[in-house]
Amino acid sequence: MLARKSIIPEEFGLPGLASRMPRKPVFRDRVNKARFIAKNGSCNLAHKNIREQGRFLQDVFTTLVDLKWRFTLVIFTTTFVSSWLLFAMSWWLVAFAHGDLDPDRQNGTHCVTDVKSFTSAFLFSIEVQVTIGFGGRMITEQCPTAITVLILQNIVGLIINAVMLGCIFMKTAQSNRRAETLIFSRHAVIAVRNNRLCFMIRIGDLRKSMIIGATVRLQVVRKTTTPEGEVIPIHQIDVQTESAVASNSLFLLAPLIICHVIDKTSPLYDLSAMELQCSDLEVIVILEGVVETTGITTQARTSYVSEEIQWGHRFVPIVTEEEGVYSVDYSKFGNTVKVATPRCSARELDEKPSILIQTLQKSELSHQNSLRKRNSMRRNNSMRKGAGSSGSLRRNNSGLAKVQFFTPTEGGQSLNAVT
Q: Where is it found, in Gene Ontology cellular component terms (predicted)?
């Protein structure tokens, strides 16, 4: 038995119509990946399987400075106590070899006076290295060995003091401490500036002491694959800013907006608003400069992933003039407002400039409509208030009592009633 043929042709059926309909591009959800640079500027990178650990000991000073404070303090205390104990043992051996520890010895010249035990030798070692000199214990000129140990302890003590105190000073004066007062906006924005799509961030300095020769560098980090099939997990692409084109230096007196024009050389040139949200790129911002008070070079870093880039937003102004003084309101440092921005990529915007004109016209029309609605609402409110006031007057007039006036006449009294 043959199957009954459908009355509707196959090309007009649901499968045929679905196959001929234009399909929109499908974007996969962005897989959460680790950030290369954290928001506080720390590098999210772990070094593993380092075989040549001895290279860190060849640069002991840098290794000590890079250690955490608790390890540095432990090493600081251990080094001094160990040197005191080591030379205490040396002084005790000198006294023992010279016979100063013999309790039966009453007369004779001692190498070190009043050193009769290891405890007294330890106290004398601290007095020599720290140059306290309480005066109860001292060496004599009759013992050359004691003079040699004294010279060695002074030299070793100076070296230890120079290294340890220098390490503590460098840790307290590190450049990243100054970077704590260099702030970045929480989000980056993409909007139209001077008829071009621009990527913008805001930076600021909380201290009054300036950063001399401040420079800002932008890099886009993404995973790329070369035409030969090589996978580069961290491909760093330099991004030019407006300041870098002119003088490559910033006068960071007040918060500034760093602008990157998305042109043909930009890695964001082919990305639209939807494609940006689905991409896995990361924009790294590096601010470098010299601290005015100390002369030390400092660096502050942050990064922006695709979720932290707001398309169609602009930073609000935060610098105002109040009584002849420019005032900065840091409570609005990261605030943004929505502006008319095409959702297409910069490439499409260059190929079709009419898109920008249409977007601006729609924005102007919507702005005018909103103004009209506001004006009409104000008129309605004023009319309602006027109608309410007139109604209340009517109610007041209707509630008036009748007033009677009595006027005398010749034949008697007549009554006139007035309402």
A: monoatomic ion channel complex; plasma membrane
* Residue found by looking up tokens 């007040």 in the block: 254
Mean pLDDT of all residues in 70-90? 92
H or E segment to which residue 239 belongs: strand 231-239
Structure tokens at 410: 């010749």
Domain with CATH 2.60.40.1400 in the chain: 178-357
**Spatial distance between the Cα atoms of 42 and 303, rounded to a whole number of angstroms:** 10
Token pair of 227, please? 């035409």
User: Comparing C-alpha atoms, which of 215, 204, 197, 350 is closest to residue 259?
Assistant: 197
406 in helix, strand or coil?
strand
Residue recorded with tokens 């306290």: 132
> Whole-model pTM above 0.85?
no
Residue 388 pLDDT level (bands cut at 50, 70, 90): low
Q: Name the CATH superfamily for 178-357.
A: G protein-activated inward rectifier potassium channel 1 (2.60.40.1400)
Measured CA to CA, the distance from residue 108 to residue 100 in angstroms comes to 9
Helices (H) and strands (E) in the chain, counts: 11, 15
- Angstrom distances, CA of residue 167 to CA of 73, 145, 163, 164, 172: 10, 33, 6, 5, 9
Query: What CA–CA distances, in Å, run from 8 to 12, 20, 21, 318?
Result: 7, 17, 18, 66
Of 45-59, 112-126, 156-170, 380-394, minimum mean pLDDT range: 380-394
CATH number for the domain running over 67-172: 1.10.287.70
Give the strand pairing for 413-418 and 231-239: unpaired
**Helix (H, G, I), strand (E, B), or coil: what is residue 286?**
strand
CA geometry: angle at 34 spanning 202 and 260, to 5°? 30
Residue 212 pLDDT more than 90? no
Could you tell me the two tokens for 52? 């040549």
For residue 414, is pLDDT > 80? Answer: no
